[in-house]
């Protein structure tokens, strides 16, 4: 089973062409952040911005607007109850749904709204409570996507796949992934201390990096945001996901060299420098 | 066609005289920031403050107050529905209108308010949705200005000038600029990967700097804020605009040396050091 | 009487095992932050996050949500009037109650809610106004705890123990501590310029570190948060408390080497580096 | 006329004694920050905290709470309409009134509230719109103070003293100061590019430091906060004021060595290091 490698990262992150503008680096819409979990969607957006998305918009509970802009003036905002959200879903390149979403009726409505407004040309990343809601009601899966990426940790995957953790073998995971996204291309990022990535073509990759200092709230939200940013810039494909998984852990390992606990926002802050090194082969 | 040069920058940014106070460095009013796009006007204000404006006031949707002051306690605030806004427009030296303004009825009212309250002695910078609104209704152009500066990117300029991008030649751009501000002095900053600056006297300048890491949301808002800050301090004239365009890209290039993506707030943060170097010939 | 030592710190802070996840590092719930004193609970949460808690949730007045997430997107939020708070109390590992709590009727209700929802397996840290409320009504003591840790300064201890400061001898303090938590295991962190720690087993420890630059508002809130973070990760036991007291002062002494006043948030920011040094014997 | 000197600074800022607690470093209450000018009182509070006040409370418009705590969790908050504000005025050591206060009816009420709740043992610093309101109605002067410190710039002093700027001679300023605070001890900090300090005993001092990069909004608010912090720690006396004026400019000069414009929050951030150098004769 291949490990994700520095070479893979280099093949994904290439120098930007001079004759480009922000529209060339993709539009990412992040949906999440209830009145209790606003920080999660802010961290995901922070990752999406720092990983280079051209434009980032956050659909969240209105109570989170102040903190969002205090940290991230680069992000645009839309109240997740705004009736224009459906139209916006149809206009972006990548949707990240789940960080801090919660499991309220409003959260379910948002998944429904996502599902019906997709165009079929978009990449969707599903994380956290979005996965738990889909576990309860498979009809919520946003199937009209070019690529569906799911980023559960093992317990979320258990709920979603009905595979208890000891039975989460590679073959079982592949079969469950395919069953979840019938007719669509899908990627499963199964987070653990040795994160694996599965795709519906049957490929399986392991992430050689990462450290237990990253075991803290927000690390997963940050990963979801980086995947969003990379798919927006580098295309909605498995390699973009692999590169995101790898750089997230690489950043965490660098910070972890002299920090006992790695705050997720430190990972986001480090991304522009690491991406530059990779792009320039420094 | 002349390139903007370090010598031009040096001719604009001079050491401050000791016997001066904040009033000598100009009052800038920034108008923008709807309930969705508050970050844009915050980034513009961040640029205006860091570029040295003596006093900065932000007229924006009231929902943006908290984030504004969390980032920028130096900025004053006025609710963009406040009936005193018209009087304030008449009292400042420079107005930046457009970042995050949106295209609501309120946005149109603000452009009308701007137009009628100008004194004829002020510099106005029009950016983003202010330009789109004027594209739809030329009557909104704030003609009673000492200098009107417009900062569209190519697509915004297409909407404003009716020149499709392939037809945006220098001579066509000059003619369109003159037609837009009949009887006024105007400057067009046409943003692209090779930004050009046109004035109604027929001068055309190119910006030799800039990099694609700057292709991210907020870069333009930051430029508008720097132009505002420079016109406030160094006078509402073409050279102030040229210096602003140049230093914005210079900062972006320095940050881009080791960052794959250049966050606009990094540009603002770097300005005081760069301006010092220029002023002191360091 | 033994001093807390670097060896004690090393025995508590050990390298994290690779096969772990955030759940292994404990759930901390912090209760406090009225409409006047929101900063206190934010500082306590900042300490809990930086000291390595796996998950941190803050129960506070809703007015504090924006500032909380602007500083700490890693923290989860619950309105302290939310009827689900009782259930949440029963699900976490450690509760820190008191920073910025105030003495309103709502504060009293929160102490009552805490008391009835504890499971007997949890560690509770009581600080600041929580102690003052208990001083007035001993029935509020949350006795159904695995460990009760109190962190008064001398005047708060006087109100709680009825021992005037000159009479706060070691033996009197021990007796008062035991009387306050009959049948429970308790720890008293008596804050002064020579902080002492007492436990109901009769042990007494002194803290050799600390400096008067730390004599500023928020230092105590930060200590309470570190104790919470350490008990969550390293277990609810006296050694975790001792390690927290020691590292708090060590950080303060390092910062105080070149700062006249030590801002509490600087202490929190330094923790991950210090903990790494200890864990790796650097 | 003596210049304020490094020796004066050293005589004021002394090493802290080990057997002290936050109460020994004074309680500062800052009153100001309308719905338009909230940043001003935040900057003053930032200065008071960084200059070492033991406890800082901010009485301001409730809309400013979020930004205050996002920047300064160390600060306590009280709604400036809170009926307990009068009692709080009586309990603190130093009151700074004016930054961002505005001239509304509420501002006038606050000055009246201040006046009647003073105990006669407190130091009051009057800045900005507080001075303008007193200029219009001398009855608002808070005469029941141990020391009244006013910090106008030249135009504010003109309005307050009725001395037009060309007539602001030393002797005229002294006479006007004495007339303004009959029967009280008063200090006038007359801000200009060569700030002078006058006291009612007839002493006049000049500040040899400062630079025009400091000519930006918020510099004065920061000075008011430092004066508040120094009077709280080092006593309400002229030397505390002189030290505050000096260190404010010294910090500004250091920052100004490589920054064209000196942001006021940079001055505050530098204070703990400078104070340490002075206290330790480094």
TrEMBL record, chains A, B, C, D:
Known EC number: 4.2.1.136
Enzyme class, broadest EC rank: lyase
Matching PROSITE patterns: YJEF_C_2, YJEF_C_3
Record-listed AMP binding positions: 191-195, 220
Cofactor(s) the record lists: Mg(2+)
List of residues binding (6S)-NADPHX: 40, 100, 153, 221
Domain of life: Bacteria
Any GO BP annotation: metabolite repair
InterPro entries xref list: Carbohydrate_kinase_pred_CS (IPR017953), CARKD (IPR000631), Ribokinase-like (IPR029056)
Catalyzed chemical reaction(s): (6S)-NADPHX + ADP = AMP + phosphate + NADPH + H(+); (6S)-NADHX + ADP = AMP + phosphate + NADH + H(+)
Keywords: ATP-binding, Kinase, Lyase, NAD, NADP, Nucleotide-binding, Transferase
Domain YjeF C-terminal: 5-278
MF annotations from Gene Ontology: ADP-dependent NAD(P)H-hydrate dehydratase activity; ATP binding; kinase activity; NAD(P)HX epimerase activity
Quaternary structure note: Homotetramer.
PANTHER family assigned to the protein according to its UniProt record, in alphabetical order: ATP-DEPENDENT (S)-NAD(P)H-HYDRATE DEHYDRATASE (PTHR12592:SF0), ATP-DEPENDENT (S)-NAD(P)H-HYDRATE DEHYDRATASE FAMILY MEMBER (PTHR12592)
Family of the protein in this entry: Belongs to the NnrD/CARKD family.
Role according to the record: Catalyzes the dehydration of the S-form of NAD(P)HX at the expense of ADP, which is converted to AMP. Together with NAD(P)HX epimerase, which catalyzes the epimerization of the S- and R-forms, the enzyme allows the repair of both epimers of NAD(P)HX, a damaged form of NAD(P)H that is a result of enzymatic or heat-dependent hydration.
Protein's UniProt name: ADP-dependent (S)-NAD(P)H-hydrate dehydratase
Annotated gene: nnrD
């Amino acid at each position: 089973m291949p490990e994700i490698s520095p070479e893979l990262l280099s093949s994904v992150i290439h120098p930007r062409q001079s004759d480009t503008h922000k529209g060339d680096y993709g539009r990412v819409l992040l949906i999440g952040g209830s009145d209790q979990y606003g920080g999660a969607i802010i961290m995901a957006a922070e990752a999406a911005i720092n990983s280079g998305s051209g434009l980032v918009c956050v659909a969240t509970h209105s109570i989170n607007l102040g903190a969002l802009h205090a940290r991230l003036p680069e992000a645009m905002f839309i109240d997740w109850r705004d009736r224009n959200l459906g139209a916006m879903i149809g206009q972006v390149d990548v949707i990240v749904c789940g960080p801090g979403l919660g499991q309220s009726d409003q959260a379910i409505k948002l998944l429904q709204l996502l599902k019906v407004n997709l165009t079929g040309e978009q990449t969707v990343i599903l994380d956290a409570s979005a996965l738990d809601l889909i576990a309860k009601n498979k009809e919520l899966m946003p199937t009209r996507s070019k690529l569906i990426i799911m980023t559960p940790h093992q317990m979320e995957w258990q709920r979603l796949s009905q595979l208890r953790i000891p039975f989460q073998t590679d073959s079982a995971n592949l079969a469950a992934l395919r069953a979840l996204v019938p007719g669509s291309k899908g990627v499963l990022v199964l987070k653990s201390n040795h994160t694996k990535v599965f795709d519906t073509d049957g490929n399986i990759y392991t992430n050689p990096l990462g450290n237990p200092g990253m075991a803290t709230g927000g690390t997963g939200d940050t990963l979801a945001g980086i995947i969003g940013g990379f798919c927006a810039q580098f295309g909605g494909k498995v390699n973009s996901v692999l590169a995101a998984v790898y750089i997230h852990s690489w950043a965490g390992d660098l910070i972890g060299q002299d920090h006992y606990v790695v705050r997720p926002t430190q990972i986001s802050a480090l991304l522009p420098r690491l991406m530059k090194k990779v792009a320039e082969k420094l």
